Amino acid sequence: MRAWNVAVQMTTVVESTPAREAARVLAAQDLPGLVVVDGKGRPMTVLAGTQVLRMALPSYCQDDPALARVIDEKAADVIFDGIGDRTVGDLLPRIRPELPAVSADATLLEVASVMARSNVPLVAVVDADRVMTGAITLDGLLDRMLGT
């Protein structure tokens, strides 16, 4: 089985995409992260869902998770207001991790190797021009490898 057999279409974002919109896509599609592409559709990096949370949560909650207990549930609904007008580009780390990407004819073992090495549960599948044609999530990969 090859990467193109497992890859699925996935919504991508660009650096100028509002962070709030990226959070909605993550939630709506139940994704571990989003592939950030350039203007030509070539993947540049992955925006992990945890990076969105990091920007939304107040720093004192990150420094001491026990302090998050003092926020009642009504107030918790406004946590994502902390993102404000930030964009995807604002959420990305300064030093970007290696982009996990494979060609469409990569084997599932190759996909697993790239995913494990990058420690990102999302791999972009690209064509010969490095344009993204789909993506493989950890869940999708494990489903295929385990035959479920």
From TrEMBL:
- List the keywords (alphabetical): CBS domain, Kinase, Transferase
Query: Where does the CBS domain lie?
Result: 95-148
CDD domains per UniProt = CBS_pair_bac
GO MF term (any one): kinase activity
Q: Name one Pfam family in it.
A: CBS
Kindly give the SMART domains that the UniProt entry links to this protein.
CBS
Against PROSITE patterns, the record matches this protein to:
CBS
Which protein are we looking at?
Histidine kinase
Species per Swiss-Prot/TrEMBL record: Paractinoplanes durhamensis
